[in-house]
Amino acid sequence: GGGRQHVVISIGGLGNATAAHFWESIAVGAGLDTTGRRLTASSSSNNNNNVDDGGIVEDAFFHEVHASGQYRPRGVLVDTASCWDNPSDELRYPSSSYSSPFPVFQRWRHLFAPDQFAFGKEGRDGGGTGHIWADGMYSSHHQSVVDEAIDAIRRQVEGCSSMAGFIMLKGVGGGTCGITSRLILSEHFPRITKIGGATITPSFTLDKYPHMAAYNACLALGGGVSGGEMDALSASVLFGNGALHHHHHHRQNGGDGDGRLYNPYTSCQLASRCLQSITTSMRLDGALNLDVNEFVTNHVPYPRVQFLTVGHAPLYHRIQRSTQHGDEPYVAELCSHATDFHNHLHSDISSSSLSSGGASTPTSSTNSTMGKYMAMSLLFHGNVAPKDVMAAVSTIKTKRTLQFVDWCPTGFKCGINYSPLGFGPSSSLSLLSPRTSSSSSSSPSTSPFPPRSVTSISNTTAICDVFSEIHHRASTLYSKRSFVHHYVQAGMEEGEMSEALENLAALEQDYEEVGMVPSGDDDDEEEY
After folding, report:
1. Which residues, including other chains, have CB under 8 Å from residue 227's CB and lie 6 or more apart?
2. What is the pLDDT of residue 190?
């Protein structure tokens, strides 16, 4: 990598589920076993299909323990629930209707040192936050978790010779996002860049507690008098629970079978895969190397206009079937799918689409022509030729399907890493990717991942619709003061909800203003 270290902080059920798959994928790619030791040469060769970086242990995300040959992730896992630390509690958390992230976490827990965990204990601490942001933010009975987390983070920072920044993985719909607010708003690490590597917004059509989710997301993002995550973080990559579920489950089987089962913890695999792609240039050498500070510089033109969308291809079998070049999807087609706004992973998917045979109806996204882009990066993996990348980008520009704001005609930034993006052994995402056709006898490959892929990272004005929906749902509830007493009882001032709503409305206006076209200036030549 680039020689600078990054510390990954995962918080809550969704954050830790995403982290479990992320660390598994990059540990296997780095040639490490479940205890952090290098695999033998024979084991590594047998596992070659999962290696995405030639077996190199990256200092950017791992560190060696006292020259012992054992490597630890630069990460901290935080949750108020006790179930992560007590496998017997898995039966009561999460709900029995969900597929659990615990098997992959338990398999890889010894990759971490015990002091990298900050979990709730049996009893009151282990009961979680009751889906109330204010409980995580203000309640004193979670103070021990916060203290342990800050100590664990400090140890990781002190172990870095050249600290680049924090990458935070978390949801903003549950009560534990209050713990996130406590950590990122603390004054312990004020000068270190913090980005939301995966910020997962709630699905109001699928969430078990949609009313609480609206309040929690509003408070986490808007933050009342504290300003929230938009002021505490330098950039945030947004994923929508509904979109992750839709892409991971519903289209996996063409709308059949598991497509109707809401499964947030396995849907996190898709978020972790995108994070694996985004961090490649931080971990490995390639045509585009950047740390979190450069990531922010490339994508965030203003401090509050910092929320990014992600697209990834290939996801579906139809990409492989539609290509005219055999079993491997080509760059132009991958580029087209990854940059298609309707394939981005931040928008909620209405429950009606889950029972309509596959037609998707985004409830919190707009058509791409209704939003303008301020920045876009395309990160390619695998057998990709630069000339094919240039041709694919040129095709997209010619179609004029993406419009950039007139004042920032930066166009596309592209990065290439020539190793395919691998999967961890626990991943089910290989089911989503193009498989080798059974009728093609010329290709003996049984690789569990596609030979090439692309991830798009965009800053677009259309993402403000996510905030509009959160604001609308939260303000509708708050106009009747519904459920507000739960937050007040947990220690929050009622006026903080009003402040959060105002901050969120101001954020919507910020996005509208940056996308405004100057009067009398319609010159299409400046779009790129």
Report:
1. 503
2. 84
